[in-house]
Prior knowledge:
Layout: H1 13-23, E1 43-48, H2 54-65, E2 69-73, H3 86-95, E3 100-105, H4 110-116, E4 121-127, H5 133-147, E5 154-158, H6 165-174, E6 181-185, E7 201-202, H7 206-210, E8 215-218, H8 234-241, H9 245-248, E9 256-258, H10 270-273, H11 280-300
Parallel strand pairs: 1-2, 1-3, 3-4, 5-6, 5-8, 6-7, 8-9
Helix pairs in contact: 1-5, 1-11, 2-11, 5-6, 5-11
The structure holds N-carbamoyl-L-aspartate (NCD).
Amino acid sequence: MAKNLLTINDLTKKDILDLIAFSNNFIDEDGNFRKEDLFPDKIVANVFCEPSTRTKMSFAVAAGNLGCNVLDFDVDTSSIQKGESIFETIDALNLMGVDLCVLRHPESVIRDLAEHLPKMVFINAGEGSISHPTQALLDMKTIIDHKSDLDGLKIVIVGDLDHSRVTSSFVEGVSNFDIDSLVFCGHPEMCQKYQNTDFGIYEPDIDKALKDADVVMTLRIQYERFEKDLNLDLDSYKSAYQLSTEKLGYAKGDAIIMHPGPVNYVEITESVYDSENSVIRQQIANGVAVRMAVLSRFLSS
Ligand code: NCD
């Protein structure tokens, strides 16, 4: 396995399946996590230069469950506020003996950092709108938990796909499998990258897109990533793309509904979020299990 987890493409299909199988050892059916002092001599720094709740806290919980020392780097009170670069910042952590850096950053800096600081292990926790590999792993684990396999499934992704690193890493991840079809749906201006790809088909009509779907992944509008003001009429957006109970009727009865969070209830109604089909809260718990597996593997290699 590669030394760092910078993109899902650092993993083979076997690595992906092994990590998911390994993560199952860390969570039981009731959602309780195994806690063991496996890495008491390792220091993990959580460096998040963009907002986060689930990813940041689940990495902290995962590292704590494994017995690591966890440093919560607070960008707002750090010397980044005095003009220090991300390179000098991470180099300082490296010189202090930090073994592994979990990094979320709006720009693509992680590859350069990993090259220049070979002693440290880097795990990508979100690179601008480009990639989010551990989210893809937890999404694939959640699907496998419910459908036992990714092969043969119809998977639909609805929402602001262009700004979504969740989508790009998920698409890379599932391209290792024989899924039946991958359908991209959403406002044409939010799905420009997905209208002509080899990975799947774009279907702007949500009712058609959802027909016989096994998995529906919904995504919020990433307002913070739009360069221009978004002149959007929310009511017409919701009537075209919000996943409601009525629209869900087009999918298979046992379709699972996913969302990486945070949920804005523009892209999905509260009743679908709360429905039996929703696995959104399980995704959060799976995030801890998958990150325990990732940290264990990359701290041991
Ligand atoms: C996503 C992210 O940050 O890319 N959230 C997450 O990691 N759970 C999706 C989002 O912010 O909409």
